Amino acid sequence: MRRHVDRAPDSRHALFMSDAPLDGLTLLSFESRRATEIAQLISGYGGETISAPSMREIPMVESPEVVDFFERLAGGTIDIVVFLTGVGTKALADVLRPRCSPERFCALLDRPTVVARGPKPRAALRTLGRSPDHIVPEPNTWRELLGLLESECAPLDGTTIAIQEYGRSNPDLIDALRARGATVLPVPVYRWALPEDLGPLRDGIRALVRGDADVILFTSAQQCAHVLTVARELGVERDLRAAFGRVAVASVGPIASEALRAEGFTVDIEPVKPKMGPLVREIAERAAAIVRDKRAVGGDPRPC
After folding, report:
1. CATH entry, 2-55+195-298, from 3.40.50.10090, 3.30.300.30, 3.40.50.620, 3.40.50.12780
2. DSSP per position, 88-142
3. How confident is the prediction for the chain on average, in pLDDT?
4. pTM higher than 0.85, yes or no?
5. How far apart, in Å, are the Cα atoms of 245 and each of 273, 283, 286?
6. CATH architecture of 58-193
7. Backbone phi, then psi, for 74, in 5-degree steps?
């Protein structure tokens, strides 16, 4: 378990007493790729971070889906290409590199309509030299994506739509598009796996169960699944679920929130903009009061 800020042992009991809004609060983060960045943001508001990375990206090199996508794209039989993530957009170009240079990939994208789910895939596409034809409005969920495709790319019946996936499929989106008569080609370019070193994640879960965390942060939907998987392995899933009722639960955006609610968890904090900076800022503004209220209702013996 990695703590990014050292504090006095009893400082967590000074909740709500400091000018720094997160002073005395311990935040448990499951972020992996940007763990240091989120810890620095938390530290800037006076909080302490328990870093418990929960995911690892594994590229799917030369997967059959990627090969099929390339052949259809080169053959001019794909009508719409949807890029869901910036990382996935770059990964797809890299995976295709042995077959297709980035310049040719960009040229092949001239024919189909190109849709970016948000600013990150848009930026990645621009790096390749292709600006998207449409950008999904915030909060960038599959529902906004479906609405954009229906309004800007209609009729969908008879179209072939390739979707760059980001670690796991979205069956709701795929089923909705197929119900509208589209042929959907999921293109997974990486998948999420548990970290090779599970020690920090196990320690983070144990800390939450012990009551050593005041706020828990989820920055992706898959984090919830991995946390529950490891909690079951440790035999503490029931205690983990109970611990959620004693802390402020923060989600970066609607996709992660939907996954949490599907598991029966209440999301206390979700920023209007689904980004890390606004998430930590909103935590700083609201977490202390949420923790205080939850402890009062739950009869938590620790002072507030």
Report:
1. 3.40.50.10090
2. HHHHHHHHHTTTS-HHHHHHHTTSSEEEESSHHHHHHHHHHT---SEEPPTT--H
3. 91
4. no
5. 25, 17, 16
6. 3-Layer(aba) Sandwich (3.40)
7. -65, -30
